[in-house]
Amino acid sequence: MTDATPLLELRGLGVQLPGDGGPRAVLHGIDLTLGAGEALGLVGESGSGKSMTMRAITGLLPPGAQLDGTVRFEGEDIAAMAPSTLRRYRDRGVGMVFQDPRAHINPTRRIGSFLTEALTLNRGLGRRAAQARAIATLSEVGIDEPERRLRQYPHELSGGMLQRVMIASVLLAEPRLLLADEPTTALDVTIQAEVVGILDQLRRDRGLGMVFVTHDLDLALAVCHRVAVMYAGRIVEVRSAERMHEENAHPYTRGLLGSRPAIDHRAERLTAIPGRPVSAFEAGPGCAFATRCAHVQPLCRERPPELAPFRGGLVRCHRVAEIHQETSDGTSSQEATA
Amino acid sequence: MARLILHRLGGLLVTLLLSSMVIFGSLYLAPGSPENVLFGNRAPSAATRAAVRHQLHLDQPLPVRYWDWLTGALHGDLGRSMVTGQPVAERVGAGLTTTLLLVAMATVLIALLGLGLGTLAALRPGPVDAGVSVATSVSVTVPPFVASTVLISVFAVRLGWFPASGTEPGFLGSLHSLVLPACALALIACGFLARVTRDALREQLVREHVQTAEARGLARWPLLRRHVFRNALPPVITAMGLLTAGLLAGTLVVESAFAVPGIGQLTIQSVAQKDFPVVQAVALLLVAAFVICNAATDLIQALIDPRLRAAGRNT
Ligand SMILES: Nc1ncnc2c1ncn2[C@@H]1O[C@H](COP(=O)(O)OP(=O)(O)OP(=O)(O)O)[C@@H](O)[C@H]1O
Ligand SMILES: [Mg+2]
């Protein structure tokens, strides 16, 4: 591995799942790279394929799924890994914080077992040593009385605590890449910020790479270096978090930010994007967002746009330059809105 | 946990007491007076009849007779058979060993085959799963008396590997002669347990916590053992409890078919002969076995699931 090799590289990643009447695409041509220690936000509405991207990264696709393109971790194609190498990659390379800790932690085993099993089973660490490390890590994620927690069962802990336990379990494995799939959506609003704070702090302390999945673009901007916006199984915009507020360009991103283009006076205050999100397989031959876009033109429905550089980021939109022109002029457009 | 055990034990005793009343009462209400068994075809004089009824305490009111019987039973005295005059405890005891052995053998078969086939089907989707599914579908439709007939004609009559009826002397002899009855008894339960096991495992295999374990790179067997098998146990244990309790009822058919001198056969005989003290004892024994199976199931359930254990603490 040279310094130039990214920690994680997705090239033309596509996933098709078996559906009635043939395979259905849920991901399409995802290109992403992540450097060591970098935090990338993955943002999009429900069903846009964020979780599927995470599953593809860990190599845990549903049965019958067909994978296109490549996922490389430190330069190594995970589809080509031998089973033992793949297990090692899952053990030490990548750690996943799931959305719903209550469902994702075995309810019949003690917290201590959950925290130590990867260490004792995968790495042959002794029980006592593993427990000592678990206790130390529990303290790090802000759990009091860690010794007692090890003997408790998941149902005895609150959702927020369980999510900290999950974060601790991932940190214990000392991975180089952290995947967090909506780590706070299942939690009480009052503790969401706390859990995100802990995750962010520990990630920085340890210099881990992270892919942070969320519906909330503002949250992603707050904890990530870069943000990728997904729609219908595709990436529609990638941009640094710092520049996102000034330079956001894709109509969908603008919709998510609640900064609707000025040309659409009637809907200025509307933060939600009108219409229903489509799945990747429902998208027509053109731009997947065409059905909901206020700037749609015949071209948009005919030809799929490419992810192309635009003002320091990448945007998948035929009309991005025109739209930018119109909105930065601040003048009302003469064209009718769709 | 200790509380839960006490709780279950109390429930068990109450159930037994209530069912003993029901059994005693229903025999009292059954047509035909018990002493008729003794007289057979003869028509006794009123004085003789009264004397016999007095001797059998039949002239006492029901609660008194029940009380006498209950205190006797608690001291191990279940009365005497009206047909043979033997103590009931002795008659029942002789059959009990054989029946328990039969049920134990059937349970082992059910556990091995049912759990084994179910697990195989769950872990090997495709042809293996389909094959097991066909086999279990067929097995659950074969009633014990049909299974008994087929087994006897093939393995006893044609091949001569096992005796067709009765039991051979000695423990090994008993084991050998109970192989076919145990198979006939276990067949349906094997099929059911295999299905329950398969479905329970399939349900767990797609659970989120299993995904977590996979994402952590656990090897296949530790993963199955820690996160799939253990979590799939509750429905399997429940099914095993019910099936084992049901086996006792199944012995009625199978023991008659193979002429095995066990409780099942004794029950059928005593009912036919209206040997009331024996019927009472045997019926109570069957109830006890059912209740104990259920209680054991619940306790094992609580051992497996920490949430149930906590619930037991609060009640
Ligand atoms: N196991 C599965 N079988 C079939 N289709 C699936 C499966 N999992 C997901 N999908 C489909 O794949 C698409 C992407 O789903 P995914 O879970 O990645 O969305 P998401 O962006 O994570 O959404 P959410 O914000 O609701 O978590 C959806 O259309 C979904 O219906
Ligand atoms: Mg998701």
TrEMBL record, chain A:
Gene3D superfamilies: P-loop containing nucleotide triphosphate hydrolases (3.40.50.300). It is a peripheral membrane protein. Keywords: ATP-binding, Cell membrane, Membrane, Nucleotide-binding, Transport. It holds the Pfam family oligo_HPY. It comes from the Bacteria. SUPFAM superfamilies: P-loop containing nucleoside triphosphate hydrolases. Coiled coil: none annotated. GO terms for molecular function: ATP binding. Residues 8-257 form the ABC transporter domain. Belongs to the ABC transporter superfamily. This is ABC transporter ATP-binding protein. It comes from Streptantibioticus ferralitis. The lineage of its organism: Bacteria, Bacillati, Actinomycetota, Actinomycetes, Kitasatosporales.
UniProtKB/TrEMBL annotation, chain B:
The chain crosses the membrane at residues 12-30, 100-123, 130-155, 175-194, 232-258, 278-300. It is found in: Cell membrane. Residues 96-297 form the ABC transmembrane type-1 domain. Belongs to the binding-protein-dependent transport system permease family. It holds the Pfam family BPD_transp_1_N. The keyword Transmembrane applies. The keyword Transmembrane helix applies. This is ABC transporter permease. It is a multi-pass membrane protein. PROSITE patterns: ABC_TM1. Keywords: Cell membrane, Membrane, Transmembrane, Transmembrane helix, Transport. InterPro entries: BPD_transp_1_N (IPR045621), MetI-like (IPR000515), MetI-like_sf (IPR035906).
